[in-house]
Amino acid sequence: MTKATNITWHSSSISKEERRSKNGHGSCVLWFTGLSGSGKSTIANAVSSELFRQALNEYVLDGDNIRHGLNKDLGFSDEDRTENIRRIGEVAKLFVDSGAIVTTAFISPFRSDRDQVRALFEEGEFIEVYIDCPLEECERRDPKQLYVKARRGEIKDFTGINSPYESPERPEITIRSDQVTVEEAVKHIFDYLQDKNVI
Predict the structure, then answer these.
(1) Which of 55, 86, 173, 177 could join 39 via S-S bond, C-beta 3.0 to 4.6 A?
(2) Per the CATH hierarchy, to which homologous superfamily does domain 16-195 belong?
């Protein structure tokens, strides 16, 4: 619900298409979703690094980093998770409008939230990348020791343990991160972007 009143949307004097033309490539959001420890941030950053190496406009929006600033007022209740994803969707849309390829690394556990973000974008601009990794492998990795804490009851509402993760039903890209290397995952994503004429 909009709380602000007496506001008017101002169109940019430079269109998204003009920015894309100047950049020499398309713009989109690569929306990485998956369990904690599945490899979202690792793969998202590897993709971003390769985009940068190829002189393409890119940026990474990482879940933990966003919660240090923009979303530091949000917790992990279902309502706060929904608002977290809504805000990120709006920020990602600004990046896409600027002509950049933005990668986001968020658990974003609920399908309805991801669908709400998808609805912000034009056809082909929202690319859902499901980092599929078995829970037991994510727990084995557990780089932040979050699963250990959740199992002890020190973290409540932890996705995969005592809060659900709703896997995508029709993601544009699926990466089995327990079966491929980071380099193979990056290549798969780049192949998709080239096939769709984004790059």
Answers:
(1) 177
(2) P-loop containing nucleotide triphosphate hydrolases (3.40.50.300)
